[in-house]
Amino acid sequence: MESRHSNTKKWINISAMLFSVQIAGTIGLIYSQFYMFYMLNIVISIAGAIFVYKILNRKDVYSVNLEQEIQKHKQTFSQLKTSNTKLQNIFDSIDVAIWSHNLKADKLLITAGIEKLYGYPLKAFYDDADLWKKVIHPDDMDVVIKRANDIENGIVATSEYRIIRPDGEIRWIHDRGIPFLNEQKELIDFNSILIDITERKRAEMTIEHMAYYDELTGLPNRNGFKKRIDEKLKEASYIQNNLALFYLDLDRFNVLNDTLGHSFGDLLLQQVAGLLKNTLGEKGEVFRRSGDEFLLLMDFKSKNEVIKIAEELIASFTKSFLLSGQEVFITPSIGISLYPGNGFDSETLLKRADSALYQAKERGRNTYQFFTEQRDGKMERRLNLEHGLRKALNNNELFLVYQPQVELCTRKIIGVETLLRWNKEDEGIVSPVDFIPIAEETGLIIPIGEWVLKNACLQGAVWHKKGFSELTISVNISVRQLLDESFIDRVEAILSEAEFPPSLLELEITESTTMESMEETLPVLHRLREKGMKISIDDFGTGYSSLTYLRKLPVDTLKIDKMFIDDILTDSKSGAIVKTIIDMGQNLGFHVIAEGIESAEQVDSLLENGCLCGQGYYLYKPHKADEIENHLEKNMVIS
């Protein structure tokens, strides 16, 4: 562009000089011959023509360039207008508003998005510049005060607060304020971006509620309990206060849950939660730890206050719960630990309340028990066994032994009872008396029981193929297994996989627990019997209502409890009971087996009373499969 202007300037100078010479010659200032003057005119005319052409051509070029520039500006303006429209559409479509206030010029600019956020017309904010502040929730005014202080000091302020819309709806606003100060540190301009974050806040509150509250009962969960008890312990430490922690568990809830179904169990838990809240009232707080376990936390001045609440809680369960028209009764067991007497932190207090709960259950349930130091060791032992038992299957610590059942007159083996043993990794052999009740309470009996049944049937199939085709395999079954909806299908699948005849499998159930759940277990027992399996009642004589229900049970075998056999020679009443059971069993067509035989005299007495079969240490101790096989080869006829 500069070279073009330079050429134009040069031509103008040349043309000006030539015209000047011509004018000077014309008026006589320059003397010249005629022909020279003539030639000069010709040159000047040509130069003038060229100059005019250049000027006209340049004018066209300039016109074209100017028109192009104007067109470009129009396009740019159109694009800017389109961009502004798009930007405005974006602001209008999202919950965003921009507030710009030039304090120096006292000029306020607010985008229309504020109407969507606040529910007020845009004009209302121009009419009252403090309207945005007037609708802020009263509980959040401290946030606004801090924000204003930051803005005055030139600090970018990011705040979140609630506003109340004209219709009463509460919305959350994210406000990012950007201040501008002059050299004198005075606020001269201020911009703010306002965003509606209500949905995000709701999501956050939902997530927090899920983290700290139980979905079923609405009570704070174990996370909520941990947070709250830590707060209460800090407070109690500061003001020298006392705290009581109640650990409440519903007695036999698992049996009820398995019997009536989980939906009924859930209804019961919801009603229990309401009952606990109503009973405790303003005196404390209720939490759901897990399953049927609840925690209660209360301040107290005298231990008598704690005792009174514990007794009120026990008494509140005397009334029935109505579940979908069905009346249900259930009782609680409660363990109590106290701060500061039983511990200074939540973990210790919880552990000791759990220890007290265990003692309450040992004392017969439906009662409460305060923690005492002498019980702590037993509770630690129980927790240690429970923890180890959860890993026992995966660690291959469980194994089976078999105790022969024999004909007393011939001493021939007619069957074996499968017994579970636990070789604990860091301890050695643990008595079944110690770990079976824990397996029952925790529900571990279901996977463990299935493992026992499967391995017993596999071993029975091995012996069956070796020729011991009449050997019966007895396996103890828990009532919790019977109440499991899929139990029958699992038994059939195990028999099929092991290729073991159902007729050689005898399932042993305990009399006392069976009688407690008679209505629920009876149909299951009938179905098992229909599929060819035998049913045996273990520990017979120790339960209640035995004679009343015995005719209803699909039973093949009665096993006389060891406690009667122990005293058969010394206690006439025990002898009479044994005689009665034997006679009744024979009259009803049952196979009768005496358990726990430990002497030849007991064998003779049983034979005299008509009992033909038995088992016990005097006859055979429990052995592993290979040892049992040696006895089978000697004392059982191979088909």
What features would you describe in this structure?
- By secondary structure, the protein is of the alpha/beta class.
- 52% of the residues lie in helices and 21% in strands.
- It is built from 24 helices and 21 strands.
- Strands 13-14-16-17-18-19-20-21 form an eight-stranded mixed beta barrel, surrounded by five helices.
- Strand 3 (157-164) and strand 4 form a beta hairpin.
- Helix 12 packs across helix 13 and helix 15 (445-465) packs parallel to helix 17.
- The longest helix has 60 residues, at 34-93.
- The protein is elongated, with a radius of gyration of 48 Å.
- It starts with a helix and ends with a helix.
- The model is unreliable at 29-34 (pLDDT under 50).
- Residues 83-158 form the PAS domain.
- Residues 157-209 form the PAC domain.
- Keywords: Membrane, Transmembrane, Transmembrane helix.
